[in-house]
Design brief:
Radius of gyration: 21 Å
Oligomer: single chain
Shape: globular
Structural class: mainly alpha
Length: about 270
Amino acid sequence: VIYGSVTGISIGKLFMAGIIPGLVMGLALVLVTSLITRKAKLERLPKASAAERLRAFRDASWGILMPVIILGGIYGGVFTPTEAAAVAAVYGLFVGVVIYRSIRMEQLYEILVASVSQTAVVMFIVATANLFAWVITIEGIASAASDFLLETAGGSSVVFLLLVNIILLLAGCVIDGTSALYILSPIMMPVAVKLGYDPLVLGVVMVMNLAIGMVTPPVGINLYVACGISGVKFKDIIGAVWPFVIASLVTLLLVTYIPILSQFLPGIMK
């Protein structure tokens, strides 16, 4: 959504472009998980019966419908991505209050306060990053950086994409994805266009890079979340995350240099 708002590219097409790369990355992570768990020889729980699986699916079906409603509504032209966020919020509230009954009406005030606080933090980051992006554009810094990147790549899209991945992976280690997209998108997209690289695919590549950055130290915010939930020490989880990072990097290279993985669905949906 942020990349689309910065570059003017259709957010609906960006959603579609990310489906196959997302499935490929998911498959890569499944394979790594399978290898690790087999090596660890974990104890298997008894296989769930058909009735238990049906009951679990029925209980989860309301949650599964959330992405179906969001993506189906966007692709079907029922509502915009911004409107989809509002629809998702109302749907989530309805399911929590009426279906699962995990939210009581008296809790709504606390939920709203917490939501406003979290949103304020995100919007402050967005506002400052957007301001910085505006400054570097107005002052010609973005243009100069684009020219330098183009010159460094020597007119080669292969070298350019390698530089893009290196820069984004390093950026993801130290700054959040939102700020990185606001700052780097105006610099990298013009170079991609000049070299004939699809800016739609570039958006997927940038998002994948920054997603990997969320599980790499020193920032790696998802690692801190995992530590908080599991109780595992940060130094221990760092050592365990590298097989997954390597699998993600392999997927990233495939998506970077095989653009059809991102272009296929938007192409057939025209």
